[in-house]
Specification:
Number of helices of chain B: 14
Structural class of chain B: alpha/beta
Strand order of the largest sheet of chain B: 1-14-13-17-15-16
Largest interface: A-B, 15 and 17 residues
Distance between the termini of chain A: 98 Å
Helix content of chain B: 25-40%
Order of helices and strands of chain A: HHHHEHHEEHEEHHEEHEH
Oligomer: heterodimer
Radius of gyration of chain A: 28 Å
Helix content of chain A: 25-40%
Shape of chain B: globular
Low-confidence stretches of chain B: none
Number of helices of chain A: 11
Number of strands of chain B: 17
Number of strands of chain A: 8
Strand content of chain A: 5-15%
CATH architecture of the largest domain in chain A: 2-Layer Sandwich
Structural class of chain A: alpha+beta
Number of domains of chain A: 3
Mean pLDDT of chain A: 86
């Protein structure tokens, strides 16, 4: 009896040993060469596979970095500051500096500002609502409120405000991957520079209708009057198709346009409560008059 | 009696509700102000050829075709061009349109306004097609495809059949039915002209058995015309679909897109279109009028109206006795394929076949539940697709799989959604998928 057990152990043991040796040889002979830097870089990435970099997931991005040999033109917006520098260091180079960005919802058509005219009872998806008709209000450019952007966010950084019916971005969680901007069928969400001290000035409207039509549809709509264009000392504002747009690379946050806008469409966020002289951001303005003066000092 | 013909796969039987089938067509007076959207056909929008302040007559061309697949637009009223502005149209968006303030009712002299039937047509095929093109004709069944494009099939295609869609399978609508009863000879002359233009010897007019009076009168009158046969069809929705009708009338199967009916030797036209071909070729009358069914269960006076295009829907609704209090949705077209209109100010256009006022109880969507895999939608699909699967693929943005599962073959008839016991919005998802996949295919072809 014990003989039988012993035989079984020996036979199985030998079989295992032989197969083990075969597997070892095969694995050595057919080993896939992986650049050790790829897993290294992958380790640094957030692993959310959000696709914000333009590659299908973090492993693909790491591979692209190594393949290119530098991080030129590549950027993982989802990772924290300094990660791109670390990746660049692994590849033996330096990361170019890019201003941090954040998603900005350019619509202020809350339930109070935009009276409803119709009722949409189809599928609660912006993509389908947008295809079906202009929407429940008289504004055919603004937020549809079904939350495609919320569903697209992999970082829990955008949520619908039930009171206004509009999405709100949590700027601390937002990584500027741009998934919400792509998901929005009306292209309301834009990636804008985060701004000094997170301060931003932007036109919170994308309505291209003529003034009277836009005004009738929404109390907070841009009517294309052009007052902001005239008041801007830095030529940062352009008016096209009855809609003002502030170029965030030129805007110096003077807030003159905010005060001028008759519709209250231009919003200034994260500024301190009005003080005697609120025009200038105190952080980087050694000479306050340099920013608040005429266009010639802007150059 | 031999088995009645119909298409082979799928289909549903919605309640007919043809409330206006015995109502003589009435003529609606011209509006005070007429609105002509520049985009009321498939293809490129038309380009305005009048300016603010110009005087126009009934039948004056106000916009020219913006490409080969496009159509001219004619004024249906006489008066002065008030402005060219963006106006809310049936798509639910604001689009450019020509607005005309009506003064009097003066017609272009070239239009023959007599009721007399003109049978004789001595034009060459090229001249006929040119006249059709100049008259701005589009398919009046609903899709509004420019007629002259269909009349010029690809060179390698040999057309041996013309099939006329007179089934009017959409519930409630009766405009085609009335047209056949009131103007059968004109339709047959129009069809003979089409046959001459395409050099085709055989034509079949498909009429559903639920219109026995139309079948009788058309069959009787068709005896005097050579090569025209009236085919009574078993009632089933969507028999008016081009591919379904070809299957029912000739037994031929149109392959999946990008194949078109011309690839199997058939050209299909709606019966209303054939009538407008008659008017354009024999009476020099461009397309600016059509019959619209104004209907609904609670409507006081449901009717068939001959309407000048550009008339606001409100005027049609008022003629029919006003908007009933229980109305939940105002629909342009029928209940299956129609589209909800967002306002009564929307003008009637070439594609407005009906105005349906659906009560709240019937129009509101029921609560959506989970798919129970009953496959009713699969059985109902006249294109042999799997709607539940396509909807899920679309919901999950799996466009590659959606394309390989033939999402582009969907004709958006709505059979799937209407049979679903779980009230799933199958068609909404499939439409989204079709739009997206269509965009991907166009981008890919553009790259090549």
């Amino acid at each position: 009896m014990s003989n039988l057990i012993l035989t079984a152990v020996i036979v199985l043991g030998l079989t295992g040993l032989v197969l083990g040796i075969v597997l070892y040889i095969v694995s050595r002979k057919f080993a896939v060469e992986v650049d050790p830097r790829i897993p290294q870089i992958q380790e640094l990435l957030p692993g959310a596979n959000c696709g914000g970099c333009g590659f299908p997931g973090c492993p693909a991005f790491a591979e692209a970095c190594v393949k290119q040999g530098s991080v030129k033109g590549l950027k993982c917006s989802a990772s924290k500051d300094g990660v791109m520098d670390q990746i660049a260091a692994i590849l033996g180079g330096e990361a170019e500096h890019q201003d941090p960005k954040v998603a900005v919802v350019r619509c202020n058509g809350s339930c109070a500002n935009r009276p409803g005219l119709n009722r949409y009872d189809g599928v609660k998806r912006c993509s389908i609502a947008n295809m079906t008709a202009g929407g429940e209000t008289g504004c055919f450019f603004g937020c549809l409120g079904c939350g495609d952007c919320v569903a697209a966010c992999k970082f829990d950084a955008i949520h619908m405000n039930p009171e206004t019916g509009l999405p709100e971005v949590d700027q601390d969680k937002c990584t500027a991957c741009g998934m919400c901007a792509t998901a929005c069928p009306r292209r309301i969400i834009e990636l804008r520079n985060k701004g000094k001290l997170d301060r931003r000035v932007y036109v919170s409207c994308v309505n291209k209708d003529k003034g009277p039509v836009a005004k009738k549809a929404c109390a907070a709509a841009c009517i294309g009057c052009g007052k902001c264009v005239k008041v801007c000392p830095f030529e940062a504002i352009t008016l096209e198709n009855n809609l003002a747009y502030i170029d965030f690379t030129k805007c110096r946050l003077c807030k003159k346009c905010v005060a001028e806008c008759p519709q209250g469409t231009i919003l200034a966020v994260n500024f301190p409560a009005p003080k005697p002289k609120p025009e200038v951001a105190p952080s980087e303005a050694p000479k306050p008059e340099a920013v608040s003066e005429t266009p010639k000092t802007a150059e | 009696m031999a088995m009645l013909k119909t298409f082979k796969i799928g289909g549903v039987h919605p309640a007919e509700n043809k409330l206006t089938k015995d109502k003589q067509t009435e003529v609606l007076l011209p509006p005070k102000q007429a609105v002509f959207p520049l985009s009321q056909h498939i293809g490129a929008p038309a380009v305005p050829c009048v300016q603010k302040g110009d005087q126009v007559k009934v039948g004056t061309m106000i916009a020219t075709a913006g490409g080969f697949v496009s159509a001219n637009i004619f004024s249906s009223v006489s008066g002065k061009v008030s402005k060219i502005d963006s106006v809310l149209d049936a798509s639910g968006y604001r689009k450019p349109a020509i607005i005309i303030d009506v003064e009097g009712d003066e017609w272009e002299e070239s239009i023959d306004r007599s009721e007399q039937l003109v049978k004789e047509c001595n034009l060459t095929p090229e001249e006929i097609i040119a006249k059709i093109k100049d008259a701005g004709l589009v398919g009046l069944g609903g899709a509004c495809f420019p007629v002259h494009v269909k009349m010029m099939p690809p060179k390698d295609a040999v057309i041996d059949y013309i099939v006329i869609n007179a089934v009017e399978c959409e519930p409630y609508l009766t405009s085609d039915h009335r047209l056949m009863l009131e103007h059968p000879e004109e339709i047959l002359v129009g069809l003979s002209i089409m046959m001459k233009a395409l050099n085709v010897k055989q034509a079949r007019v498909g009429i559903e058995i639920t219109k026995p009076d139309a079948i009788a009168v058309m069959t009787e009158k068709a005896k005097a015309y050579s090569g025209i046969e009236v085919v009574p069809l078993k009632t089933k929705y969507p028999q008016g679909g081009e591919k379904q009708l070809i299957d029912a009338c000739t037994g031929r199967q149109v392959p999946p897109p990008p194949a078109i009916p011309a690839n199997v030797g058939v050209v299909v036209q709606n019966v209303g279109t054939v009538y407008s071909i008659y008017e354009a070729v024999q009476k020099n009358k461009p397309l600016f009028e059509r019959i619209v069914t104004v209907t609904g269960k609670s409507v006081k006076n449901p009717c068939n109206l001959k309407v000048r295009m550009g008339t606001p829907i409100a005027q049609l609704v008022e003629y029919a006795g006003g908007l009933p209090e229980d109305t939940g949705k105002l629909i342009g077209g029928g209940p299956m394929m129609g589209k909800t209109l967002m306002s009564q100010d929307i003008p009637t256009v070439k594609g407005t076949s009906g105005i349906l006022m659906l009560p709240e109880t019937e129009s509101v969507r029921k609560e959506e539940r989970n798919c129970i895999r009953c496959a009713k939608c699969v059985g109902a699909c006249p294109m042999g697709l799997e709607p539940y699967l396509l909807a899920t693929l679309s919901e999950n943005s799996d466009w590659e799989k959606a394309e390989s599962d033939m999402i582009m073959s969907c004709i958006e008839c709505g059979c799937c959604q209407s049979t679903c016991p779980s009230n799933r919005p199958l068609l909404d998802w499939v439409r989204l998928g079709k739009t997206t996949v269509g965009g991907i295919i166009r981008a890919r072809n553009a790259k090549k």
